Amino acid sequence: MADFNMPRINCQDPDVLSSDKKAKTRPKLPKAHINMATLWCLQCFRYAVRQLDDQLPDVFDVECIINVACPQSCYICTVPPGIRGHVFELMALIKFVEKYWTDDIEYKDGDESQTKALAELATAVDGLCTAFDDLVETHRKDHMLTGNVSDEAKAGYFAWCKARQHMVRPNTQYIKGLHFQYARRGTEHLRLRMGEEASISWAVAICAFYLAVTATVTKYVTSGSDVDYIDDQFPLEIPEF
């Protein structure tokens, strides 16, 4: 004969927990908000750029937080997926130059040189971000992703992205350093080919950024290793024209 377990009869007041219920711990709830390190929206990105202009030079950081309960995204405030790879290129360059804010760098004339150097580096970052913003706006206009985006434009852009997926050639080599990791992740997403839309302007901006950082560090920094860092650790290939 099968054994049947009789249900426990609880004679306690319903507001009083039994011992086995007390022993159970409440499951941890997921975070209500997530900080978007790379999938930030354009509004938060542009706000961070304005802060770079208005305040003393500091590490460039985009603070974009979404509510996981009701995440919102649209074609207006997000970077289109067809150029998502360029986001990681931008982040790779910003992380690359962040060293001069966070590390203990020896400057030729002490604090005075440091202040001038960081101001010039912040200007270089600002120019890079402006070029990226122009890249995004040109791409959106070319694909009619501005204003009230029509269903036809969305479908056409989806087809355009899908037709280019074969162009993605992920770099599987693992390299230490977040700036190199961002550069590698850029190869896992769609990017423009040289000559398309604003790709040449973006390539020029990368070259200008490299030259500006090199000139600034050479002018103000004492240690040769911190100068050599530029050529050794620059995360992207310098475009050739």
UniProtKB/TrEMBL annotation:
Residue segments, region Disordered: 1-24
Organism domain of life: Eukaryota
Name of the protein in its database record: Uncharacterized protein
Source organism per UniProt: Penicillium flavigenum
